[in-house]
Amino acid sequence: MPIFSLKKKFSLFFRINHSNSSGHCHRFQDMMTESDIQFTLKSVDDKIAPMKQLGTFMKKSFGNREDAANLLLSIGLFFPFFLALMLLASTLSFAISIPITPYHFVFSLVISIVLYFGLLIRYISALSRRKAGFLSLLILVVILISVVLAGYFYDLSYDGRLYHQFSVSHMATGWNPFYSPYQMTGHHPYYGQMKKSVWCSIYPRAMETCAANIYALTGRVEQGKAINLMMIFSAFCIVFASLLIVSQLSSKLALLISFLLAMNPVSVTTMFSYYVDGFLGTVVVSLFALTLIGFRKKKFIYFTAMAPYILILINIKFTGLAYAFFICLGIMIGLLIKKQPIPFMKTGLLFLLSGIVGFILIGYSPYITNFKKYGHPLHPVMGKKKMKGLMKRRFLAIPKNLQSKNRFEKFFISILSRSDFIQYPHSTELKLPFSVKRQEILNFKSTHVRIGGWGPIYGGILLLLLFIFPIHLYLSRGRLIDYLWLLALILLSIIVNREFWYARFAPQVWFIPFVLVTALLQENSGIFKRIGQVLLVLLLVNALMVYWGYFSYQVPASVKLHAQLKRIAFKNRTVELNPGIFKSARMMFYEAGIRFKVVDRISKYRKKRQLGHSIEVGL
């Protein structure tokens, strides 16, 4: 704000006080000389100058679509770069027998900012040092907000509390999965020595490793979930940039579609938990968006930006390895079809090196360690000792009426049934498309709605599109070839998973209608554009129902749990804690400043209170 403007406001303030206030205000005015006021106003102006410059920079950057897309890419691509570097640093630390420390996160963040923006300034864009500084500040703000939000909302999920937090807390306190994957050596201050946990040992743990870096720094296990929020924000930026580059959609429509893709039902219902499926979904949608940009711009640099995503995706879970392979395969086929031999060779080499580093180095535990112990890197999914037949069906708890069906029958039964947590021996309940019961919406409080997990009316929307899109394709006369190719790539990554009826196992199923709707919306006029607008509204309504179901439970539940823990801590005495199957409740009590004694059963002489599912407290 200019000095003269502030000066006028100060003068008005003094005139009002001169005529209406008591004597001490007159004395204060008399003490203030013109030079004092001028100096004060200049100081205020100097302090707000950086914010004014940031606002000017953002306004200029969003002046046209290309500048806006470049800015969004510069912001969004930082987070996978940062997480991949943190994964690599942690792995190299494990390799030389150094556990995760509070310095790992800070080191990874500082090195990421220096390397990332150094590369942007020198090789990729005409980004000045000042603009790089502003973007760095924005990124730090996003990280801080993510950590604060993740720390406030409790992980109320089953697997998150059962073993994901277990893995995070002990990697942060000494466990080295590189050398002792099956003999945990972590010494947690309120767990004691960690016992053997098969779930922590045999599965990839990219998210848990990154979360352990945050936990080692902050001492709050819930704050490790900030990884989910960072990647949702990153996915939004990347998808928004891709739509600005490759489509003719208005900025508002591109903004809405980007938001809905980043905030897909799986990512939203797992965002405040340690379930890794939403994290996987944000990585996959970002890869698809970068693929679109790479083919449109025909620049190798956009395929290079996929390397961190591949490193992360391979190490999120076993299905991530399959998704990474088939997405890379689809991109290579696309380059081959387009007859681009040089990009084909360079991209192929990049993907090969990323796969080797991700699988053999970062993924040494569990892929190589599983191979040594069980004879197959993907144990217990594959190999001689894999789960099969009845054991596998019981582990997945496949609903009774789906057990004899093939993968496609399971999928269509799932999306045309009521959204619910249904498992064996129960069966799904079919419904009319677009019919919704209130309980379906409320069921999305769960992190893993097994049936109809993409929303209560998703099935109806997809059926309409399967009827409309072939007609649109026939009348388009080849204009939709890019959308067909992207759709084929998405479908390829989906059908490799036999259990893609389960939303948590295939979050990219959510992307299918958006590809088709985007194609409809790009018609200049006519019935297809109107249909696209209606379907986008339906997708928004479907997403809002999921959001309402999740947040209407998550927010009050976390607020209530905070209040309960605060009341217990206020009593300032040792309580009895029966955590049941959720041993991670010990961390929650310790971090809340509550003294406790772990028991198998609450004493009859104490008042028993229930804290969520399975956790009992004796006061």
Defining key terms:
globular; disordered N terminus; 619 residues; mainly alpha; four-stranded mixed beta sheet; two-stranded antiparallel ribbon
Could you explain the architecture of this structure?
By secondary structure, the chain is mostly helical. 66% of the residues lie in helices and 3% in strands. The protein is built from 27 helices and six strands. A four-stranded mixed β-sheet has the order 4-3-6-5, with helices on one face. A two-stranded antiparallel ribbon has the order 1-2. Helix 1 crosses helix 3 (34-61). The protein starts with a helix and ends with a strand. Mean pLDDT is 87; it is low at 1-32.
Extended strand count: 6
Give the termini distance in whole angstroms.
57 Å
Structural class: mainly alpha
Overall pLDDT? 87
Number of discrete helical segments: 27
Main beta-sheet annotation: 4 strands, mixed
Widest sheet: strand order? 4-3-6-5
Helix content bin: 55-70%
Low-confidence stretches: 1-32
What is the radius of gyration?
A: 27 Å
Residue fraction in strands: under 5%
Overall geometry comes to globular
Topology:
Elements: H1 3-20, H2 23-31, H3 34-61, H4 65-76, H5 78-95, H6 102-124, H7 129-152, H8 158-171, E1 187-188, E2 192-193, H9 198-202, H10 206-218, H11 226-246, H12 251-262, H13 265-269, H14 277-297, H15 300-304, H16 307-314, H17 318-337, H18 341-362, H19 364-374, H20 389-396, H21 407-415, H22 438-442, H23 458-476, H24 481-495, H25 512-521, H26 527-570, E3 575-578, H27 585-591, E4 596-598, E5 608-610, E6 616-618
Parallel strand pairs: 3-4
Antiparallel strand pairs: 1-2, 3-6, 5-6
Helix pairs in contact: 1-3, 4-11, 5-6, 5-10, 5-11, 5-16, 6-10, 7-11, 8-10, 11-12, 11-14, 14-17, 16-18, 17-18, 17-24, 18-19, 23-25, 23-26, 24-25, 25-26
